[in-house]
Structures are given as C-alpha cells and as structure tokens.
Design brief:
By secondary structure, the protein is an alpha/beta fold. It has a single domain, classed as HAD superfamily/HAD-like (Rossmann fold), CATH 3.40.50. A 6-stranded parallel beta sheet has the order 3-2-1-6-7-8, with helices on both faces. Strand 4 and strand 5 form a beta hairpin. Helix 1 runs antiparallel to helix 2, helix 2 runs antiparallel to helix 3 and helix 5 runs parallel beside helix 9. The radius of gyration is 18 Å and the shape is globular.
Length: 237
C-alpha cells in the first residue's frame, strides 16, 4: 500500500496538549499494579513530579530524571509484556484525552494534513494511540531493548528534552509546510515556531509564561472543543 506524501503537516505535543495529564504518571502506576515496573523507580517518578509541581525543579530536569527512572523501572521486562500492557492501558480509560483532540485530528485528516506528534511521553502507549487515531508518532521516551527483546534499563531516546525535540522538528519539517501546531507551554516552541498558526492549550495564566507572537493564540480546552473544526477549515494551505 502506497503511503501518501503529505506536503502540509500539523505538529503537536501530546502531554497536557491532547491528553489531560502526563501520560507517564498513570502508565507507570498501571504497570506497577501488574508487577511490570520497579516500585522504587515508581516512587522516584512520583517524587520528581511533586518537586516539579512545587517549582523545585525545572521542566528539562523533570524530563531527564523521569526518563532515566522510567528506563530503570522497566529493566528485565519483555517487549511483548509491555506492548500488551500498553494495549490494555489505552483501553482502560486511565489516561483521559481532551474532547477537542479527536476533532482536531479528524478535521486535519479531512483537509489532507498529516498530524505529526513529537512528545516526550512513553512510546509504548503512544504507539497504540497513534494506530487508533492515525497520527504519525516521531520520537518519544524510548528505552533500550536488547536483541533478545528485554528492556535493558538504559535510555535510547528522550524527545522531551528540548535539543532532541528541535532535532526532530527539523527532520520532519524539511521541505514541508507546517500549517498549524499545538502545544501547552514554552517547551513546545520548537513545534510552534515554524507553524503558520500556533495553538497554545490553556489560558495564558495556565501556561508557564505568556509567549508574545502574532501567530500564537491561546485557547482553553473547552474553547477548542467548540471552535477547533472552524479553525482548521479556515487554514490557508
């Protein structure tokens, strides 16, 4: 089957943009409840998020520390176990998506615009969502897996880190027009900057710092649920 070569694309973050929470939080809880994740690393991840919520560590440090803990927590598990767990997790309702996310992806497809998600969320559940919602997943939080299909405890790729996110954006946007991009904070500027229209999810007060740029507009999730289709069909291709 020939894959369509889209000339216009939409870029999007995932956590707190299409999903209501950081994917890794309910995901590692889900894995730990099935004895697929090291309890010590689960507690470490919880501690990192508590520090982040209290502004004691910056976002980049959170991504780095959580990324390494995630990989260590999966050490010794098999690819098959975690892949099957991801399918169950994505059907469980443990991770809630904003209602506008489905509308946005469907409307973009209707206009012939490929949706590319660049995120630091764990790749295993994101691959399931990618298959279901028909978006292209680039990068993610990817642990290293041995030739024998065991998680080694080492990190392969962490696209939550800004330098990695910038590298991926340059790769996927080469010779292609970014007509719209979605994010929720300053960390998503690598996605937003090359776009014709940048959508920040959440009011300016909810974002870490208001970003002043003519092509960036702020919306609450409720506002996007009501207007996203008209926004997308108003894009000039």
């Amino acid at each position: 089957m020939r894959v369509k070569n889209f000339s216009s694309i939409a870029l999007s973050d995932w956590d707190l943009t299409f999903s209501k929470d950081f994917t890794i939080k309910p995901w590692v809880e889900f894995l730990a409840s099935r004895n697929f994740f090291n309890p010590k690393e689960l507690n470490n991840i919880k501690c990192y998020f508590k520090k982040f919520d209290k502004f004691r560590i910056p976002y980049e440090d959170l991504c780095t520390k959580v990324g390494f803990s995630y990989c260590r927590g999966l050490k010794g598990q098999t690819r098959h176990q975690i892949t099957e767990a991801a399918k169950s997790f994505c059907s469980s309702g443990n991770l809630q998506l904003y209602s506008f996310a489905h509308k946005a992806i469907f409307s973009l497809h209707a206009r012939g615009i490929e949706v590319v998600v660049i995120t630091g969320a764990p790749v295993e559940p994101l691959r399931v969502f990618s298959s279901r919602f028909k978006f292209k997943l680039v990068g993610g939080l990817i642990p290293k897996i041995s030739p024998q299909n065991y998680y080694t405890g080492e990190l392969l790729i962490n696209s939550g880190i800004s330098i990695e996110k910038e590298r991926l954006v340059k790769r996927v946007t080469k010779n292609r027009k970014v007509v719209i991009a979605f994010g929720d904070s300053e960390s998503d500027l690598p996605l937003i900057n090359p776009a014709q229209l940048g959508i920040m999810v959440g009011s300016p007060q909810m974002c870490s710092e208001r970003i002043e740029a003519k092509h960036i507009r702020y919306f609450t999730p409720q506002e996007l649920s009501e207007t996203i289709e008209s926004i997308i069909f108003g894009i000039h291709l």
